[in-house]
Each structure stands twice: as structure tokens, then as C-alpha cells.
Amino acid sequence: MEGPSTYAAIHPSATVMPGVELGQDVEIGPYTVIEAGAVIGDGCRIGPMVHILGRTEIGPRCKISAGTVLGGEPQDDKFHGERSLLKIGSDCHFHEHVTVNRATGEDGVTSIGNHVRMMAGAHVGHNCTVGDHAVLVNGIALGGFASIGERSILSGNAMIHQFTRVGRLCMVAGGSMVTSDVPPFSIVTGAHPVRWRGVNRVGLSRAGIDADDSAAIRRAMRRIFGPGANARLEAEALTGSEIAAVRELSKFILASKRGVCAGLLKR
């Protein structure tokens, strides 16, 4: 072990291999294994039977519950043992039996932001990016290279296809199968195709978006996802908006490689 010598508690049955960097005031529970190359930030609380593999960097004050595996090899046939990384920010909470894989590709990174909560049985695949304050509810699965925006909530057992993006402040309904990009500020439900259902007004309010900007977002999204609308053409028309959030929405749609979720059904 390297680094400071002040630790709160390391259970005698835990295995902390030489080459691990431990911060101060770290707790490590029974039968946990931390492999060489891992970096554990100050104040982390690591429960029993956790496995943290090498080249995993965990920021301060994270809580990791029983049975979680962080930094495992990518579930990817293109991975051939190259050095890659799992990087986790501060103040995250990983509940029981969460799995997060490190990246494919030399120096590739799987990135988890700050204040992220992943509930029991959630999985994040290789090369994914999860933004600050995101919540991944029980049973969530993210395929490789998926991206989740800050403060988005993915409800229980939703699946996010590889390379798919979910913008910030989104709400994905439980059991959804997301195979197309979800623009910021959206509520989406269903599968094959996943459909836009409305604006995440609660998310906008919690994020402190003011009333004028919130109204502009709602108007823009009604244009983009109205019955019969062409999302890309409407996004192009909004590129010059005076509202930064509307420009963000437009930019996200125009940058989509997979296409965005389907709009409302015609009535």
C-alpha cells in the first residue's frame, strides 16, 4: 500500500494488494479485494465482498456496498488486455451488486461523475460516461460507449443501447429500451421505438431553470416532437435561439448519429 498511513479500519479478512493508493480515513469491509493500481480517495466507505480491480480511480467520500465490482474487464471482444481506466468522481453511492467495467482501448476511460447514485444490480459497460448527479435505479444496464447526462434519472430495469446518448435532466421510464438518443429535458417511455412523452418539468424546476427559459424549452420541444414533425429540421430552425438551453437542445439533436427518439403518435 502507498500513501497516508492513517486509516479508519481495514477488516482483517480484506485483501489490499501492494500498489494500491489509499487516502485517509478509509474503511474496508470483510472479504473485500482491492487490486494493485487502484486509487481510493479520502473518506471512502467500502463494504464487504467488494472487488476493485486495477486502474480504477475512486474520488473522496464514495460509499460502495456489498458485492459491487468496479473496474472489471470490458465485456467486449475487441478488448485484448490494453491498459484502460475506470474513473469515478466524489460522493458517489454504489448500492449492492453494482458492476462498472473499465474501458476498451489503450488509455480509454469509463467515466462516472460526482454525486452519482447507482442502485442495486445496475450495470455500466465499457467506455460509458455518466454525468454528475445522475441516478441509475435498480437493474439499469448501459451498453458500451453510452452517455448519460447530468441529473438524469434512469428508472428501474431500463436498458440503454450501446453508443446511445441520454441528455441532461432526462427521465427514462422503468423498463424502457432506449435505442435512439434522448434529447435533454425529456421524459421518454417504451421500446421499439422509445417515445418522447413530454418535458421533464420537475427536473427543470429542481435544477433551478427559470420560468422564462423553461417555457422556451417547452415551446421548442413541442415543435420538435409534435405530431408529424421532423426533429432535425425543427432543430436546425432553433440554432439561433436566444435561450442557451434551446441551443443546447438543438445542438444535441443535430449531433445525433443514431437519430433521436420518436415523437408523439399522430392523433
CATH class category name of the domain at 9-145 = Mainly Beta
Task: Tell me roughly what share of residues is in helical segments.
Answer: 10-25%
Low-confidence stretches: 1-5
Task: Report the count of strand segments.
Answer: 28
**3D shape:** elongated
Please tally the helical runs, counting DSSP H or I stretches of 4 or more residues. 4
In short:
With 267 residues, this protein is of the alpha/beta class.
What does this structure look like?
By secondary structure, the protein is of the alpha/beta class. It has a domain at 9-145: UDP N-Acetylglucosamine Acyltransferase, domain 1. Helices cover 15% and strands 26% of the residues. The chain contains four helices and 28 strands. The strands form three sheets. Strands 1-4-7-10-13-16-19-22-25-27-28 form an eleven-stranded mixed sheet. Helix 2 (211-225) crosses helix 3 and helix 3 crosses helix 4 (244-254). It is elongated, with a radius of gyration of 20 Å.
Task: List strands and helices in order, with pairings.
Layout: E1 9-10, E2 15-16, E3 21-22, E4 27-28, E5 33-34, E6 39-40, E7 45-46, E8 51-52, E9 56-58, E10 63-64, E11 69-72, E12 85-88, E13 93-94, E14 99-101, E15 109-112, E16 117-118, E17 123-124, E18 129-130, E19 135-136, E20 141-142, E21 147-148, E22 153-154, E23 159-160, E24 165-166, E25 171-172, E26 177-178, E27 186-189, E28 195-199, H1 201-206, H2 211-225, H3 231-237, H4 244-254
Parallel strand pairs: 1-4, 2-5, 3-6, 4-7, 5-8, 6-9, 7-10, 8-11, 9-12, 10-13, 11-14, 12-15, 13-16, 14-17, 15-18, 16-19, 17-20, 18-21, 19-22, 20-23, 21-24, 22-25, 23-26, 25-27
Antiparallel strand pairs: 27-28
Helix pairs in contact: 2-3, 2-4, 3-4
